[in-house]
Structures are given as structure tokens and as C-alpha cells.
Amino acid sequence: MGELTTSIQYLSGVGPKRAELLRRELGIETLSDLIHLYPFRYIDRSGVTPIAQIAPDLASVQLQATVVSRTLYGPNSAVVSQETDPIHWGAVKRLSVIVQDASGQMEMVFFKGIRWNFQRLVPGATFLFFGKPQAFGTRLNIVHPEVDVPQEGALSQGALTGVYPSTEKLKTGGITGKVMCRLQQAALALCLPEVEETLPEYVLRDRGLVSLPYALKNIHFPKDSYSLQKATYRLKFEELFFLQLSLLKQKYVRSRGERGLLMPKVGPDFHACYNALPYALTGAQQRVIKEIRGDLTSGHQMNRLLQGDVGSGKTMVAVLSCLIAIGNGFQTCIMAPTEVLAQQHYANIQKYLKPTSVRCALLTGSTPQKERRAIHAALEDGSLGILVGTHALLEDNVVFHNLGLAVIDEQHRFGVDQRARLWAKGPLVEGAPAPQNFASLIPPTAAQRVPPIYEAMGGHGFGEQDSFDQNRIPPHILVMTATPIPRTLAMTLYGDLDVSVIDEMPPGRKPVQTMCIGQNRRAAMYKFMREEIARGRQVFVVYPLIFESEKMDLQNLEQGYEDIVKAFPLPDYKVAIVHGQQTNDEKNFNMSAFVAGRANILVSTTVIEVGVDVPNASVMVIESAQRFGLSQLHQLRGRVGRGAEKSYCILVKDVKTSKEAQQRLDLMCATEDGFEIAEQDMKMRGPGDLEGTQQSGLPISLNIASLAKDGQLLSEARAYAGKVLDADPELAAPQNAPLVRELRKGKYEIKDYSKIS
Ligand code: ADP
Ligand code: MG
Fold first, then answer.
1. Above 60 in pLDDT, residue 537?
2. Measuring CA to CA, how many Å separate 702 from each of 36, 235, 458, 688, 706?
3. pLDDT at residue 54, as a whole number
4. Least confident of 104-118, 431-445, 606-620, 623-637
5. Ligand 1: which residue has its CA nearest to atom 26?
6. Over 90: is that where the pLDDT of 526 sits?
7. pTM flag (> 0.70)
8. What is d(CA 670, CA 516) in angstroms, rounded to the nearest whole number?
9. Mean pLDDT of 577-581
10. CB 678 within 8 Å of CB 689
11. CB neighbours of residue 511 within 10 Å
12. Which of 114, 116, 143 minimizes the C-alpha distance to 130?
């Protein structure tokens, strides 16, 4: 009994020293931890490719070969040692190992783990090598192959052998792949009889899943590839199902608990605005507005995330939603992360509101006292329909008569606690005392308290949900973001929010033609730039500022500026430059010269990423493009293609461009779809590493399923979890007891939402 929780130390073949190693390197403390460490790959021992048949750019191959010779190289490929000389390890940069089988020879290359590999790959010894072959000149090699000792008999059996995550320390500590297999075998023998099924009988039946003990046995030691497939499917489904069940359960609890303001009407202002629009809404905009209307008439509080690329028309959706709320007698607010963006919104929104009778005001940190007082008054007497602003909206003295809808733009720049403060500005329940002001109504500590959804989001030092003011109904919340998040990730990170997507651009946008060039085509690029400038267009030239040394980046930028000025001399051309080291006055001066069309070319760092709108700019040149991440490239490209002219994005790469970087550049040339790019970005980098979304370090870690690769299964698991909750929202039925037990373990709770706020 109790084997699952037994310390790994007591497993035969482990002991205190190896136990410490397993804990440190893999976080394994108990037998249960061990058997939940799954192989990440399986070697089909029957599948060995003869060297003569290996071609470069094949997928990974396995070969069995004997070491012929080894050479250690220093910098500049100078030979450091060939077996006989004493070795100065410090000078060694690369290990080359020539191996052969009956059909031929090839090279294995190591830049890391040189010493360890040198010591074990002795001439005459035979190994299994696994990796991706590549051509190096006329020779074929594999860089950093996985190396295994062939196991006797295994080859002839054609069995699938698991390969476990490992580290060099583990290997040198004696926990090789073979030892790991033995440990797993021993642990499974002890634990399997104790493993409890985590899924109810009916779920297994519905989904055609194998039992947990069967899955565990076969994930480690698959009988055949069919059993492995069944085991993998079961374990992945289980993981995604519990994740979604946990998220959806929060959502169910909330939506039943939270009273939502009812907004059944549409109202004359909506119609006035709608009918005066100079264009038809896109299909995506119409769909999203329908989804929002559905929320506003549901009787539950809306918590919706609206995703849409820059320029997809989110503002329009926000305004129309506000007008619905206003049509039902409520007030609304739209919050932007910066003063500039708030002003821009305000200006746009006023245009949309012209045909209506709705009053709109702007409130930011720099709004003068007098205006502020007028705004406060108009808010409190209910005559102000839309308040646009920055986080100044959150201040305690901003008191709404009856706030019905809050729109938050650029969601990822606001903290969770700030969103929570909007909740607390909702109207009072009928019959409750009229609001005096916000601060006096809720004591300072309670004012910090948040409703359940935010409570679930890691607490942030807030108190219990039940001390949230019961007399207030939270406004509907619409969060808008232009940072495309892959669907599967959104489903997980915002699993308890509803997600709408505008996946269609307004018509008439000309695609931005994107190309990637090497340094050798710089002259041709300059010629092209001159042609565009001759046609009255303007050009952005962007340099990266992502280097370890800002000084070096600045040098790059200044060098680039000089090159450009040389190639585009006065008086025919005017070049402006903007970078982070300039004073605000300098920046503004240069920037406005470009915006006003006085400069033909703007050389800059990525400061132009946000905000600037120069419709006349038709060319975006990105220097050292290989150094940018995908989302940054996408944002930069979004700066052009805003006017009527055909636009171009030229990615200039350096000679040293890694394969991964080249993939990014290729993807940029292949698509303009922000979601596609985000999706691919996730596949290339892994979901824990998405830039721009501040999601580095996902708040949940999955053991076997992958958000990048198992999107389909994730959707199925989510739908199924929804079905289970529809039938039994409290999970109170006896047959669902295993689900409750599993959820209580807390494994599937998102712990740190601060990462995604
Ligand atoms: P976002 O906030 O999503 O970046 P905006 O709402 O600012 O995008 O819209 C970008 C531009 O597209 C604006 O000039 C807007 O007037 C215009 N626009 C919005 N919807 C449509 C549409 N359905 N058809 C044509 N133009 C549209
Ligand atoms: Mg916008």
C-alpha cells in the first residue's frame, strides 16, 4: 500500500544519491512522479537505416554504426587533438566523430557535451545514433545526434523503446536511457495495482478510451504501435479534458452566480449610427456584434475577449456595443492603455457618434480640473453616454450613474486588478441606497476585493469573493486585443472567457507584398526605394534594438543611417531618424517631419511599432530581419498598407541567418494573417514562449498534450467537458465522483494569471 507516494529513493537501483539527481534534474520525488514521466519519443529498433541510404533533408533517421575515429577542433577548425596528444579542453570547440556501418561512413558532430561524448564514443564501440542528417559540403553529418547503446535482442524484436527526457548530469550520474527503462519497469510493477481510474466509466465508454493502468503500461512499454496510440490518446484526452473541465466549471459557477444587466433593446442611437456608416460591416463584425447581443440579452454578465488584427475594425464593434447599452438606458466606458491611444479613440468615436444624440467625453491624467468636474457631473447625472479614457477612469472619484458596459482596449497591457476595479463600478441593485461616491460605498479594503473570476486568477492579494459588494451588478465587460493569440491557447488561457474573433479585414485593403532579400541585393532595393519615392511615397527603414548591447545597436542604426543618407543624398532626398536615445523634442521633430511628408525616409528602431499612422508610407524595410520575432515583424509590417497604394515589406537578412530565423522570414512572406502567424509561431517556439503576449512561462504545464499540436483534441475535450457540465453542473452525481476527486488535486488550476494579464 502507498506505493505511489513512496520516495523514489527506495526503488531498487536508485538510492539517496540518484534520488537527489532525479529530484534536481527532473523534479521526480515519488514513484508516482516517476511513472508520470513519459517517453517523448520511441525508437523503433527494427528501423535502422544503412548509412549509404541516408540522404540530407530526410526526416530524422536512426542508424547503428561503429566509431572509426574522433577529432577535436579548436576555433577556426584547427585540430586540437587526434587521440594521442594531451587534450586542452578549454580550447576545444567541436568534436567530430566518424562512424561506419557495412554500407558506408558518416560524421557525427558535437558542439556541446564534447567531453562526455568524447569519452564514451571510443573507436571500435557500436552505438545507435538518431538525428536529422544534413549535407555539409559534400559530406553528410548529424549534429548532436541522440546516442544510445544498442540493446541486445531488441533489434530483432522490433520493439518500441521509449526515450525519456534526460540531461547530461543524469547520464553521467548513471541514469542512462537503459537504466531509466529499468526504473520505470520496477516502479510500474509496484504501482500499477494501486493506480485508480481518474475518469468515470461512462466517459471511457463514450470516448472509447483505454483504462488508466493500461495506458500507463503502454505509454512506457508499448506492446505495439496500436497500443501506444491508444495509450497516448487516452492520456492526452484526460489531460485536456480536466483542464477544460476545471476552466468551464469556474465559468458555470460564475455565470449562474453573476447577475447580468439585461439589455433587450437596440435603441435609436444604434440605428442612427449604423445607418450612417459609409461602409457595410464585414461578416466578421456582424457575427461578433450578434455574439455580443446574445450576451447582453442573456441575463448573465458578459466577459468576452475580442481578438482582431490591427485594422480589422474593432473600434466599430465597440462603439455599436456601447450604443446598444445606451439604448437600454446605461452608460458605457472605453479604456485605452495610453493617452495617445485614448485620444485617437476619442477622435474616431466622435465621428461615429455624429448622427446620434450620444454624449461622449475624454478623461485622462492630463484632463484639466475644470473639465474633470464637468465630466464627473455628467457621469453622475447620467447624461454622459460614453466615457473614453486611460486608467484615469479607474479612480475612485469617477462614479457612474449606471455603468452597463466597459470596453477595455489592448487587454494585455492592463493588470487583472485594474479590470476588477471596473467591475466594482456597476450600478446598484434596485432598492439599494443610491450611490454617494465609490470610495465611501465600499471600505478601502473591500474596494480591493474582486469577484470570483479574478479571485480564481491567482488572488493578487484580494480577499474572499463573498465580501464583494452584493448590492452592485457588475457591468458587462468587453476586452479587445490586437495581439493574435492562437485559438488553442486562447481557449486555455481564457478558458473561462468567451472569445470572439474578427478574422476578416474590411474590404479594399491591398495585400502587402513581402519579400526577403540578402545583402547582395541592397543596390536593387535602393533602386526600388528611389522609384517609390519618385512616385511620392515614403519609406520606413527599421533596425533592431534587441541586442545585448544597446550601444552596439545604436552603432548599427547610426551606420545604417549614414549608408542611407549616402545613397539618398540631399537635396533630392530627406531622411529623418528616430531612436530611443533622443530627447522627446528630437523624436517629435523627426517624427512629425515624416508624418507631414517632409521626409521621404524614416530610419528608426522599433519605436514606430506602436501608434504611428502614415498612410502615404508604402515601403517597410526591416534590416537584420532575422533578429526579430514573428509578432514584431507582423506588427511592423502592419505600419504599411494603410493607404490606397500598393505596399511592400522588404526583409533584409544577414549572412548569418539560422534555420529557425529563415523559417520565420519564409512564413512572413507566405502569409499576412496574424492568427496564422501566431499559430505557426507557437508551433515553432512552443506555447510557453510566445513573444508579445507576455505569456512566456505558461501558467499551466501539460505533461503529454501539446497546445500547439493537439488543437483538435483540445476542442473535442472542451466540448465534451461542456457536455458533462450541462448534464451535471455541480458534478454532484455519483458517477462524477472521480472527476471531483481529480479536480480537487488542483493539478489543473491555472496558478499564476499575472503572466497573462
Ligand atoms: P482596429 O481597432 O481593429 O485596429 P479600427 O476599428 O481602428 O481597427 O478600424 C480600422 C479602419 O477600418 C478604420 O479607419 C475604420 O473606419 C475602418 N473600418 C472599420 N470597419 C470597416 C468596414 N466594415 N468596412 C470598411 N472600413 C472599415
Ligand atoms: Mg484599435
1. yes
2. 11, 11, 19, 11, 7
3. 86
4. 431-445
5. 506
6. yes
7. no
8. 11
9. 81
10. no
11. 11
12. 143
pLDDT value at 695 more than 80: no
Which residues neighbour 392 within 8 Å (Cβ) at sequence distance 6 or greater? Answer: 363, 364, 365, 367, 398
Residue 338 CA: distances (Å) to CA of 344, 366, 369, 611 = 10, 12, 20, 10
Atom of ligand 1 nearest to the CA of 316: 6
Which one of 288, 314, 316, 613 would you pick to mutate in the ligand 1 pocket, going by the greatest count of ligand atoms within 8 A of its CB?
A: 316
Report the mean per-residue pLDDT for the chain: 82
Q: Are 403 and 349 in contact (CB under 8 A)?
A: no
Q: Ligand 2 centre from 526 Cα, in Å?
A: 33
**How far is the C-alpha of 181 from the C-alpha of 392, rounded, in Å?**
60
Q: Which residues line ligand 1 (CB under 6 A)?
A: 279, 281-282, 285, 308, 310-316, 482, 506
Q: Given its phi and psi angles, is residue 57 left (phi above 0), alpha (psi -120 to 50 degrees) or beta?
A: left
Kindly give the distance from the C-alpha atom of residue 312 to the centroid of ligand 1, in angstroms, as a whole number: 6
Which ligand 1 atom is the nearest neighbour of the CA of 315?
6
Distance of CA 741 to the CA centre of its chain: 31
- Supply the residue whose CA is at minimum distance from atom 24 of ligand 1: 506
Record the cell numbers describing residue 587, joined without a space.
Answer: 523624436
Ligand 2 centroid from CA 314, angstroms: 6
d(CA 540, CA 85): 56
Phi, psi torsion values for 341, nearest 5 degrees: -65, -35
Can you read off the three cell numbers belonging to residue 499?
A: 472569445
Burial class (CB in 10 A: 0-12, 13-18, 19+), 76: exposed
Beta strands in 290-351 (DSSP E): 303-308, 331-335
pLDDT in tens, 65-122: 999 999 998 887 777 776 656 677 888 889 999 999 999 999 999 988 888 899 899 9
Which residue in 188, 146, 258 sits closest to 34, CA to CA? 188
